């Protein structure tokens, strides 16, 4: 029997934690935690609407260079997701229609790339 694996947390490298936190909250992420664990380690966990997986940003979280993270998430409707981003003042690309789904691309203030993909329902959710 195969065990279930679920992605829990993805680190997102940023230059300004408060600016990044405000950006993600503006586009609908919930701020789950914001704790300074000790000097040099601040842990900020944010969860996209309806997601079981979160992102983490902060001081001392990752050694990745800000602007290098790429994340793809599934949304029910690419047009609606794009409107939500535009309404929040975020620059978002047009909906890119592909045979495997409709995509909307945007970047956070540090240049980390996001792809929102609307797909037909599939067996693994």
Question: Can you tell me about this structure?
Answer:
There is one protein chain. This protein starts with 8 loop residues before the first strand and ends in a 7-residue tail after the last strand. The strands form two sheets. The chain has a four-stranded mixed β-sheet, with helices on one face. Strands 5-8-7-6 form a four-stranded mixed β-sheet, with helices on one face. The chain is α/β, with parallel strands linked by helices and 125 residues long. Helices cover 16% and strands 36% of the residues.
Distance, first to last CA: 19 Å
Query: Helix tally?
Result: 2
- Arithmetic mean pLDDT: 94
Note poorly predicted spans.
Answer: none
What general outline do the C-alpha atoms trace? globular
Portion in strands: 35-45%
N to C succession of SSEs: EHEEEEHEEE
| Helix fraction bin | 10-25%
Rounded to an integer in angstroms, the radius of gyration calculated over CA atoms is: 15 Å
Based on secondary structure, the structural category is alpha/beta
Major sheet size, sense and barrel closure: 4 strands, mixed
Spatial strand order of the main sheet: 1-4-3-2
The counted number of beta strands is 8
Give keywords.
16% helix; 125 residues; 8 strands; alpha/beta; four-stranded mixed β-sheet
List the SSEs and their pairings.
Blueprint lengths: L8 E3 L5 H10 L3 E9 L2 E7 L6 E4 L12 E6 L2 H10 L8 E3 L2 E7 L5 E6 L7
Parallel strand pairs: 1-4, 5-8
Antiparallel strand pairs: 2-3, 3-4, 6-7, 7-8
Brief summary:
The protein has helices spanning 17-26, 78-87; strands spanning 9-11, 30-38, 41-47, 54-57, 70-75, 96-98, 101-107, 113-118. It is α/β, with parallel strands linked by helices and 125 residues long.
